[in-house]
Amino acid sequence: MSKRIVVGYDGSENAMNAVEFAVGLAKAGGAGLVVAHVLEWSPYTFLTPTEIEERHARRTEELERAQTAVLEPVLTKLAGTGLEVVSELRYGHIAETLIKIAEEDGVDHLVIGRTGHSKLSSRIFGSVAGSLAQAAPVPVTIVP
């Protein structure tokens, strides 16, 4: 089985730093990259049942927009690296979903940026980085 690295990417500057670090790690170790973007889906949102129903209806649209606006630009940048790069786009709790991707794909390493777009919510609910450091089944690198 070949080595694989999952890098969490949300389009932020810190996420791009994590991608650049993961590229170097993958090149040094002969690994492939999985660029993962997770659209946060929390059951603890403050939406009404009607709003939640409407959000479910917009799910396909949100996934298409994330693919176009977040993943495709970074995949284009990575096209010239010579690495095998694939992407994952999912809904869910970010840390739990990244762990699930790592388990399903049998990856060797997780790489994420220290802070993404959710700075305020991470102070209230805990950070993705902290959750991954505690629960990930593989080594986690947190890139500043």
Kindly list the characteristics that best describe this protein.
single chain, 144 residues, alpha/beta, five-stranded parallel beta sheet, globular, Universal stress protein
Give an overview in words.
Residues 1-144 form the UspA domain. This is Universal stress protein. It comes from Roseibium porphyridii. Belongs to the universal stress protein A family. It holds the Pfam family Usp. 51% of the residues lie in helices and 22% in strands. Strands 3-2-1-4-5 form a five-stranded parallel sheet, sandwiched between helices. The chain is globular, with a radius of gyration of 15 Å. Helix 4 crosses helix 6. It contains six helices and five strands. The two termini are 30 Å apart. The protein is an alpha/beta fold and 144 residues long.
Helix-strand layout with pairing:
Blueprint: E1 4-8, H1 13-29, E2 32-40, H2 49-57, H3 59-78, E3 85-92, H4 94-105, E4 109-113, H5 119-125, H6 128-135, E5 140-143
Parallel strand pairs: 1-2, 1-4, 2-3, 4-5
Helix pairs in contact: 4-6
Domain UspA: 1-144
Protein name: Universal stress protein
InterPro entries: Rossmann-like_a/b/a_fold, Universal_stress_UspA, UspA
